[in-house]
Amino acid sequence: MRVALFPGSFDPFHNGHMEVVERGSRLFDKVVVAAMRNPQKASALFNLSERQELIEASVSHLDNVEIVALSTLVVNLAEEIGANVIIRGLRAVSDFENELQMAQMNRQLSGIDTIFIPTSSEYSFLASRLLREVASYGGNVSKMVPEPIANAILAKFRE
So where does ATP get bound (predicted)? Predict the structure, then answer.
């Protein structure tokens, strides 16, 4: 069985992430999406369990996708779930340098390969950081995220 691991903070999960998951689900027997807390990023919009639930609702149409929360090294989770590869989305050339470094580190640590899936140009501008900022000022991001995420963002900023 070919298993791919797609790790990320996904705060929030957006249509660019969805595209990578959908494409990965066609390429692999199973895709495990791992929502993780990134200590290098500012405070989270959604906690890990909220992200896990929201992503599950967003990908419910895909039978071969599983969602987990990550609190360890990506390579440790990859080994634990029997992943053959890590998949990562690339929006622009600027993403490549950082993603390449992570891929090389993961390969050095565990021997696991990373496969890059470039997003379509319609999603290349999407970044969770930007979506959080726009939403915090009352901007409408509903066309940029799956419906369960849009509803949760609206509810979050009504609080």
Answer: 9-10, 17, 89-91, 99, 123-129
